[in-house]
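Our collaborator T.R. sent over the components below with a one-line note: 'Predict the complex.' Nothing else. No constraints on interfaces, no templates requested, no preferences about which chain binds where. So this is a plain run: every listed entity goes in together, and whatever single assembly comes back becomes the starting point for the next discussion.
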Amino acid sequence: MDAQLADILGSVRVVSLPLATRFRGVDHREAALFEGPEGWAEFSPFLEYGDAEAATWLAAAIDFAWARQPAPVRDAIPVNATLPAVEAERVPDVLARYDGCRTVKVKVAEPGQELGDDVARVRAVRAAIGPEGRIRLDANGGWNVDEAEHAAHALAEFDLEYLEQPCATVDELVELRARLRRWDLPVAADESVRKAQDPVAVARAGAADLLVVKAQPLGGARRALEIVSEAGLPAVVSSALDTSIGLSQGATLAAALPDLPYDCGLGTASLLAADVVAEPLVPRGGAISVGRLVPDGALLDAHAAPPGRRDWWRERIARCHAVLAARA
Ligand SMILES: [Mg+2]
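Returned assembly:
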């Protein structure tokens, strides 16, 4: 179960995958992949994250590659389409990449955009998916309480499933929930779970109706299951623009949750223009399958990151491994 640094660096491959749609301000996604006794795992904290935060992502990858995973209670995971903050005209094109998804997560509150852009985007989504479809919003903490309340009113006519991380802080989420309770619009916590010292604090504070949980930032599927159980709230499993290998870890977590009342944010392989497995884990009929995946050697070669970037990731892994050793 203990992964030595040499074992990880002995199999690690670093890739740079082109995105189909610019997302989080980038058009390529870098990821490190390595193999342990249980299979392949992904280590892909975003580039700007410091070592202390990234080390938990490494713990998750080591867990997935070296440890027996929790038993599944389902073999397919219903997933949502994820719509970056694109212009309204592009909405049908992006949604066409998701086969059979009845739920769309729409990114809103993008820096440099205005509420009018969000309204136009959400209107285009509702037009594309019809009245039966579900629309949830993800603001990534981009609004203050007043802006979030105003946006909720402006977007109410589109019948929203929930608001994900509308505001940045737990106190703001508590305040917003109090204001929204009159019309029963649930609030989901994402950054307040995965970036907090205490991921359960947001639940204890009464700041969320449901939690978004991600295997990599929380240290792996087993740790995420403990957090969900301790929080006592419904959970949506999501990803962070992972390759299909990282998504398979998310699917492992989603498959093991006792209850899965919402579609999960694990359909994001559709945002990649290339992947590391021959059959990417894109939604089919609105769901992805559960199970381990093996990267395709030719794809690893074709999308290998340049040597300078490969070395950067190897050094990052070594530093994060030292952080984990110091924590143990
Ligand atoms: Mg989110």
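Summary for T.R.: The first strand starts at residue 13 and ends at 23.
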